[in-house]
Amino acid sequence: MKKLDLNKQEIETVESAIQHWQEEGYLDSEKAKELKDSIEEKSFEWGMLAKYAFWIALGSLILSVISLFADDALVTFVKGFYETPNIVFCVFFAALAAMFYFLGFRNKEKNPENNFSSETLMLAGAFSTAASVGFLGTILDRSTSHYTISFLLSIIIYAVLTVKLQSKLLWVFTLVALGIWFATETAYHSGWGFRFWGMNYPLRFTIFGLIITAFSIWGQPKIKVLEPYTSTSYVVGLLYTMLSLWCLSIFGNYSDFEAWTGVRQYEIFYWGLLGIALSLGLCLYGMKTKDFVSRDIGFVFFILNLYTRFVEYLWDNINRTIFFLILAISFWFVGRWAEKIWKKKDVKSKELS
Fold it and tell me: Where would you tag: which of 21, 78, 195, 196 has the fewest CB atoms within 10 A of its CB?
């Protein structure tokens, strides 16, 4: 029987459940002993260490590239590339991306349990793809400043690679590239202004996020090759929606900074009210249906919206000491509320075991 790697609290819960099942007659003593022998205490969170190590490695790689261009000793060397045709950089990054994807896919096939290392290689490939497509855009579209075709190309590349390499991380890049394409396409058709069909960027992306979320619920599950990435689309769609709506609650549907600075926040309170209502609705829906993604995102943005309104309406109208005192007390109550919920869940799980 496969060994279960659990922490101390989990072991106590499982052993208690085995004991209960044995007393009820669902398990004989031999099977109970076999189950208990299959449990091992988790000595160290090696999985988390691997995850963080790979992320730190990738971050260090990016910092090393930044340091390369910041180093005075290498400035002369870098200047030698200024006259290099963009096609050379395009091909170089395309080859680099192909290498990272190949290594990531091979690692995933040979060592499917090494998910973090495979995803890190895929991420490096995604960045290289973005660089290659960016240089391709400068080659094909120097005069018009209409780069949306290159972004559209990156969406197709990421989507195809998502299916071929079965990588959820690449699907995230597909949706991010889709958002960038949406922003540049609407900006291009509005003469590179901030308003498109009377909507500024936050309002546009609120609608865009709702479309992604709706597609993940009703459309994507019907497409066989994209069905495994439905949950990823759902999360990204909700984040697009809630982040954009939060920005909308602060800036309103204004595209001119000077016009916005002359507006009192209570004049655009309805956006904040909508943000609070939607986040609270998500939170309640998540708790009722056991949809933890909706619950957590809804709860985070419900608190964020409440505190944003708190700062907006009280920052200029109350003494700073009292302001931060109220803030501290309110956070304490939020913490106590979360602690009580956590304790209730812990007691309930022990009762079920």
Answer: 78
